[in-house]
UniProtKB/TrEMBL annotation:
Residues 29-247 form the Rhamnogalacturonase A/B/Epimerase-like pectate lyase domain. This is Parallel beta helix pectate lyase-like protein. GO terms for molecular function: lyase activity. The keyword Lyase applies. It comes from the Bacteria. Residues 1-25 form the signal peptide. Keywords: Lyase, Signal. InterPro entries: PbH1, Pectin_lyas_fold, Pectin_lyase_fold/virulence, RHGA/B-epi-like_pectate_lyase. Transmembrane segments: none annotated. SUPFAM superfamilies: Pectin lyase-like (SSF51126). The keyword Signal applies.
Length: 468
């Protein structure tokens, strides 16, 4: 009996110790009880930073409804969570002058230090409002981001809104971590329009994930410079919207082995008003773009940039864009090539020029796609074809695609049009001569010559003249 009581007492002691540890590890600190009161028109930044600095590891700082004035950057640290009681009514409002904020080297209204690894940092259930209601132009500088998570691992930004900033929500400045495990979820960004410095690196992005193996899901970026910018390795994005971006692209993706699913890029009421391309996938290897939609984009719906390779585009839709799906080669002329692209089951409908436009593409597959009612802006000698094969398209399999025009007034007068028809031998000589001249870095120029193989084409348009 005595032994049993000892065992029971030991078990109770263990339970109490475990409960105490859990309670400590999940410490919630109400900031109002620490003298940080909303709606008092006082600058709360210093008090918030002092509380962050003194809070024990794994603390959650809980902010009640109201507006908190932020006159200088909030600097987060490892093992800390900033949480509001309601994402719509807990507001962090940037205050002070643009000139004073320019003097601060921190890049965000809420941010982390880039000089140390910040692990297990979380921001959730808040709204951040910037002061840049009149955006800082590309020639200017000094814009600050909404939530800028620099050099972070295992961290997240969830259920937040930002407006009138440089970047809206961003993870970047990773210092060598192979897999960061960072997450942006249910973020709503509007008017990320101000530049932080002149040039491309200072351009505003609604949502930026430049963090290996980061995840972005369920977000909306609207009326921002570039909707989304993704860079690095293994990044996944799903169920997101880019709306009415003002510069560049809805999604600019420079990711090795990217995964893009169920996303939308919609801009303007027509392609004449829409800026840039919906989805740009550029320069890397590997990836999947699936079940996505681009609409009203002035350039391409889906733009693949040479030398992007080993990429699959499946079951996507491009409608009312300049070109539905295509390959861009700006600054990357032949001999650079796209290799092993897979266009499977996509639809290009009602676009200004071609539905599908291919160049500098080899060893790729174009199957079971539909090009319908395209060429809305007319046809000339250079843009024939609902599906067009331009320069340096060799060794590809193109079959079981549909070209049709169901309009009363037909515009898609050509179906599949191969500009290389009858010129493969001539093109092979030109191609390899060009390659030999340009392969100055190769130890053996002759070994770089490409064996030019004609495309394998099986096609018969429902409407429109085929030429191949």
């Amino acid at each position: 009996m005595y032994t049993r009581r000892l065992i029971q007492a030991a078990r109770l002691s263990m339970i109490l110790a475990f409960t105490s540890t859990v309670a400590f590890s999940q410490s919630v600190i109400s900031v109002s009880q620490k003298g940080i009161v909303p709606n008092d028109n006082k600058d709360d930044a210093d008090k918030i930073n002092q509380l962050i600095a003194s809070a024990p590891a794994n603390s959650t700082l809980l902010f009640s409804d109201g507006t908190y004035n932020i006159g200088s950057p909030i600097i987060l640290k490892s093992n800390i969570t900033i949480k509001g009681t309601n994402p719509n009514t807990v507001i962090f409002r940037q205050t002070g002058s643009i000139a004073n904020w320019q003097k601060n080297s921190a890049q965000g209204i809420i941010t982390t230090s880039q000089n140390i690894v910040n692990d297990n940092v979380h921001v959730t259930n808040i709204t951040v409002k910037g002061i840049y209601t009149t955006p800082i132009s590309e020639a200017g500088s000094g814009g600050k981001g909404g939530i800028c998570m620099r050099n972070c691992t295992n961290s997240s930004v969830k259920n937040v809104s930002t407006s009138d900033t440089w970047h809206g929500v961003a993870f970047y400045d990773n210092k060598g971590n192979a897999k960061t495990g960072n997450l942006i979820e249910n973020a709503i960004v509007t008017r990320a329009l101000s530049n932080s410095q002149p040039g491309n690196s200072g351009r505003p992005r609604g949502i930026l994930m430049n963090s290996p193996y980061g995840v972005v899901k369920g977000c909306t970026s609207s009326n921002s410079g570039t909707g989304y910018f993704l860079g690095g390795t293994g990044i996944e994005i799903s169920d997101c919207k880019a709306l009415n971006w003002t510069v560049d692209n809805g999604y600019y993706i420079m990711v090795e082995n990217c995964v893009v699913r169920d996303c939308q890029a919609i801009t303007g009421s027509s392609s004449n008003q829409g800026k840039g391309s919906g989805f740009t996938i550029a320069y890397q290897k590997g990836g999947l773009v699936e079940n996505c939609k681009a609409q009203n984009c002035g350039n391409y719906g889906f733009r693949i940039h040479v030398p992007q390779s080993n990429l699959t585009l499946r079951n996507n839709i491009a409608t009312n864009c300049g070109i539905g799906f295509g390959i861009e080669n700006a600054s990357h002329p032949y001999p650079e090539m796209c290799d092993n692209l897979q266009f499977i089951g996509n639809q290009a409908i009602g676009n200004n020029l071609q539905g599908f436009f291919f160049r500098q593409m080899m060893n790729s597959k174009v199957e079971n796609n539909t090009a319908k009612n395209n060429n809305q802006k007319g046809i000339n000698a250079r843009n024939r074809g609902a599906i067009t094969l331009q320069n340096y398209t060799y060794g590809n399999i193109i079959e079981d695609n549909v070209c049709e025009d169901t309009q009363t007034k037909k515009t898609q007068l050509f179906g599949l049009y191969d500009y290389n028809k009858g010129n493969y031998q001539k093109a092979a000589v030109q191609q390899n001569n060009t390659l030999m001249r340009s392969a100055t870095k190769a130890t053996n120029n002759a070994a770089n010559a490409i064996n030019v193989v004609p495309n394998t084409i099986k096609h018969n348009s429902k409407f429109g003249q085929d030429y191949y």
